[in-house]
Amino acid sequence: MNILIDNSWKPHLQDEFDKSYFKDLVAFVKLEYEYHTCYPKGSQIFNAFNHCKFDDLKVVIIGQDPYHGYGQANGLCFSVNDDIQHPPSLKNILKELQQDLNITYPVSGNLEKWADQGVLLLNATLTVRANEAGSHQNRGWERFTDAVIQKISDQKDNIVFLLWGGYAKKKKKLINTKKHLVLECGHPSPLSANRGFWFGNNHFSKTNSRLLQVGLSAIEWSLK
After folding, report:
1. Phi, psi angle pair for 47, to nearest 5°
2. 43 SS3 class
3. Catalytic annotation on 55?
4. Per-residue pLDDT tens digits for 141-195
């Protein structure tokens, strides 16, 4: 596995890359990609960082695992490649966006446009075997992405963290809530959303209000 990550992140993450756990993780991922079908494709493993440069970072959305179906994962949490049917959680995210900001429901579920504006779409685990959800958990990715969240909290100011669901909410302990805004709600999965824990959270408009309040430009959430 080559660490194809934008140069803006390297000064902040090089110490993690040098640790033994990360070297073990790289060795594991190389073998997995050699002997199994894994997602996303190797060049997209660090896509979240490559589309969202450290200096441009405004918002962090935390997911858990990449999609494990054919052609879905593109290295950004909740995002799918163009021309791929929207998975249930992404459908609910886009429906909430539609309700919150009166934005037309998009054809594509590719969220690169958000990432390019400074939204870090970070999965806790960056790789997965095809059709085996959670297959690359507890191999070191979570330690790495926890370190990413901690470093963002320590080294940046006025970031908006969107924690959707129980797993993401556990990351709150890594965030300095005195200098960052943390917005929490249920997961956008149908199970949570249908029980009333997702729709109406207005996280997209609340995020933009906060960004404008601290002198930053709002995110253009429309995916047209």
Report:
1. -55, -35
2. helix
3. no
4. 999 999 999 999 999 999 999 999 999 999 999 999 999 999 999 999 998 887 8
Residues 72, 80: contact at Cβ < 8 Å?
yes
For the cut 70, the answer to whether the pLDDT of residue 1 exceeds it is no
DSSP state of 20: H
What percentage of residues in the chain have a pLDDT greater than 70?
A: 99
pLDDT at position 193: 80
Per-residue pLDDT tens digits for 67-96? 999 999 999 999 999 999 999 999 999 999
Residue 132: DSSP 8-state: B
Contact between 216 and 58 under an 8 Å Cβ cutoff? The reply is: yes
> Which of 6, 15, 65, 100 does the annotation list as catalytic?
65
Q: Count CB atoms within 10 A of the CB of residue 4.
A: 13
Q: Distances in Å between the alpha carbon of 20 and those of 17, 24, 116, 155, 189?
A: 8, 6, 31, 24, 35
Are 146 and 161 in contact by the 8 Å Cβ rule? The answer is no
First to last CA, the chain: 34
CB 115 within 8 A of CB 121: yes
Query: 101 with 219: CB under 8 angstroms?
Result: no
Of 70, 176, 54, whose CA–CA distance to 122 is shortest?
A: 54
Interhelix angle 20-35/141-155, nearest 10 degrees:
130
Q: CB 27: neighbour CB atoms within 10 A?
A: 12
Is the overall model pTM greater than 0.85, yes or no? yes
Task: Tokens 């960082």: give the residue.
Answer: 49
Q: Side chain identity at 142, as an amino acid letter?
A: E
Closest by CA position to 176, among listed 198, 193, 158: 158
